Amino acid sequence: MTVRELAEQHVAKLLATKGIAVQLGPFAVRIQSDLGWLTSLIYSLYSPYPLAPAGAFIDFHVAVTRARGLRRWMRPQVQFCVDGYSPFVPYVAEHALPALEWGINWCMATRSHHLLMLHAAGVERNGHAILFPAWPGHGKSTLCTALIHSGWRLLSDEFGLVRPDDGMLVPVPRLIPLKNESIEVIRRFRPDARIGPSFLKTRKGTVAHVQPPEDSIRRAQEPAQPRWLIFPRWVPSGSVTLEPLSKGQAFVMTATNAFNYEVLGETSFRLVTEMVRSSDCYTLRYSDLDQAIDAIDRLTSLSP
Amino acid sequence: MQVSNDRVCMSLSPPAHDLVWEDWGDIYTVYQRSSAETHVFNETTAFVLNELLANATTLNRLIDVTMEAMGLKESELVARDLTWAAKRLEELGLIELRSEAALGS
Questions:
Q1: Alpha carbon of A45 to those of A142, A195, A210, A214, A219: distances in Å?
Q2: CA spacing 20 to 30 A to A153: which of A277, B79, B84, B88?
Q3: Residues A127, A178: Cα–Cα separation, whole Å
Q4: What percentage of residues in chain B have a pLDDT greater than 70?
Q5: How far is CA A86 from the centre of its chain?
């Protein structure tokens, strides 16, 4: 059952009371909020997401609620909480949705050490996945958004989750936060992409959230085999370049992009080694999305 | 007073016997179980550790062996490179550097 199969008023009531449990890839997240306008947004953007199965273990209990005291009314603020605890300072009330999304990111990053977590976007097609490890500002979310609107399935725009037992990538197809100029870039690239409202002057500039294609959400329980490691970097101008990268360099760049490499110790070393050994590794420099996608499509269609 | 390279004895420390190596052709990545750290070693550093696996030696003898094995001629560069590598490996706890005077006491 998906969120949209519930009536919006019912979802609003659930959010304001015991919460609504949504399945986000491998994580069951119970969300609560007493903000009426946020519930409309959640209903809209989360509509294709499955509800967590009845009785499922809830990984994170999160809430975005009005701040207490004067900040409830004067220049109102909201608080993100997980398990009743607020790990962040309050947000401006208008930024409630970004606060929720960033908060869930924080939960995953700090509480998912049963998986190796790479700071990477991931997409899949025909059973093979591309991972794009990159630090913020390199354009991976924008590139990922363009790819999933060009025939690729979204695994994640932020977390490359690797299963220690078999090295498979675990999908977590969440809303994709685009920042600043990227929002307009994607609107032009795919006018039919489902993009939520823009939130101005957040801690990361202007942010808007892209709802992934429903196929990506429906297939969230299908893991994928990594086949290519591509390290992207958006540049203001110039032709696209897609160049082979030595595996030694790829190891170093992948390991340094792992959120919890040190936490998992030798398991991380083994997983990254195996992933690099079994993948073709490249650097990608691009300024135009169409050129980047063409280059990636050519590469992946040529490879056995 | 600086101790000459002839009088600096190098040997592997116990953690160096428990490393997980991966050879990438141009570099080695090495997982050190005793510290849970991952290191990136070049060919020179890997060669030093490999030589010391066989037996302890002095820095000067190591320089000679390295030059011969790698077909190098610039002894000053090799000496500087190896001295730096040795210092770094000591900091990582993988080798021990002891002066002969210290060994005798």
A1: 18, 8, 8, 11, 17
A2: A277
A3: 27
A4: 83
A5: 22
Nearest-Cα residue of chain B relative to residue A256: B38
**In whole angstroms, what is the distance from residue A299 CA to residue A130 CA?**
11
* CB spacing of B22 vs A251 below 8 angstroms: yes
CA distance A268 to A260: 8
- Would you state the structure tokens that stand for residue A239, as one six-digit string? 């032709």
Q: Do B29 and A251 touch (CB under 8 A)?
A: yes
* The pLDDT value given to residue A109: 95
Integer angstrom CA distances of residue A98 from A1, A46, A61, A64: 25, 14, 17, 10
Question: Could you tell me which residues are beta bridge partners of residue A121?
Answer: A132
Residues B12, B56: Cα–Cα separation, whole Å:
7
**Which of B18, B21, B29 to probe the A interface (max A CBs under 10 A)?**
B29
Q: Is the ipTM of this complex over 0.90?
A: no
> Helices marked H in chain A — which ranges?
8-16, 36-45, 96-111, 140-148, 181-189, 214-218, 247-256, 261-264, 266-277, 289-302
pTM for the model: 0.91
Stretch A37-58: mean pLDDT: 94
pLDDT for position B74: 63
Contact A251 B20 (CB under 8 A): no
Inter-CA distances, A134 with A14, A273, A284, Å: 37, 18, 11
Cβ burial of B72 (10 Å; 0-12, 13-18, 19+) is middle
User: In this predicted model, what pLDDT tens digit does every residue of A272-302 receive, in sequence order?
Assistant: 999 999 999 999 999 999 999 999 999 999 8
- Using a CB-CB distance cutoff of 8 angstroms, which residues of chain A are in contact with residue B33? 266
Distance in angstroms (rounded) separating the CA atoms of residues A270 and A283: 22
Angle at the Cα of A138 from the Cα atoms of A135 and A139, rounded to 5 degrees: 120
Nearest C-alpha of chain A: how many angstroms from B89? Answer: 19
What the block records as the tokens of A5 is 């199969």
